[in-house]
Amino acid sequence: MVPLKNRWLTCCLIEYLGNALLIDCGEGTQIALHLSGRKISHIRTLLITHTHADHIAGLPGFLLTLGNTGKTSPLLIAGPKGIRKTVQALLTIAPFLPYPLEVQELEPQDILQRDGMEIRCLALMHSVPCLGYRVTVYRKPVFSPQKAEALQIPRPFYRQLHEGNTVCLPDHRMIAPEQVIEKERPPLSVCYCTDTLPIPAIARFAEGADLMICEGMYGEDDMLDKMEKKGHMLFSDAAALAAQAGVGRLWLTHYSPAMQNPNDYIANAKKFFPNVQAAWDGICLSLPEGKDGG
Fold this sequence. Notes:
Elements: E1 12-16, E2 19-23, H1 29-35, E3 43-47, H2 53-56, H3 59-67, E4 75-79, H4 83-90, E5 101-105, E6 111-114, E7 117-123, E8 131-137, E9 142-143, H5 145-150, H6 158-162, E10 167-168, E11 174-175, E12 181-183, E13 188-193, H7 200-205, E14 211-215, H8 224-230, H9 235-245, E15 249-253, H10 266-270, E16 276-278
């Protein structure tokens, strides 16, 4: 919620095939990413959950730092209703950027396609308009060179077939992608939800995600009444939603500054969902985790 000397504010960087998107941008975000060994020059999309300071006050510094990397390609900033006005106000202290800036206000049902990543939105329940995001990559199936060779398909046609296109060979044979596919691969999804009450829609939104990143403002269950008034969640709330959603794993984040050691309370989450971690600055995961063809 607030930056501490040993803990930065919540943000999430997702990288795919050389491009990246960032979710939320509290003060010092560019420093936190640098300390985690992440490059920011290839960020092309910035998603803001809501306009509270701990999620957007770092925007001017981040944009200026991004400009210092030599970036000239456009950056899209997207978020809930009101994001355009907030961004315009913050840009008064970063008025000159060496790259084009686009700002888009999203509705909960909107779907964005960015650099091979599909972004879906969910209206969360907080004191201001707030969106959760689900980022999905639909992967190509596993191509079988052996099947292609058995069919005597020239190599220049492999790429088209792998991309799902039927091809006509020089000998006039029509080859469908299904004839050279070894197996299908499931999509990869990351679901990110903060700040919000634990509404049932979150479990439906996160269903089957490989990774769910969710707020856990306090670990103690006796803080329930306080969290309901503030529009936030406990560790146990987030874990119960993860269990309902059947996600692969859960990372907790967005801790109260009063909770110095989140791991002291992780058992309260594990009662509901065993595969949970109290996230820390720089925690990183590569998907897929298993060997399913990459």
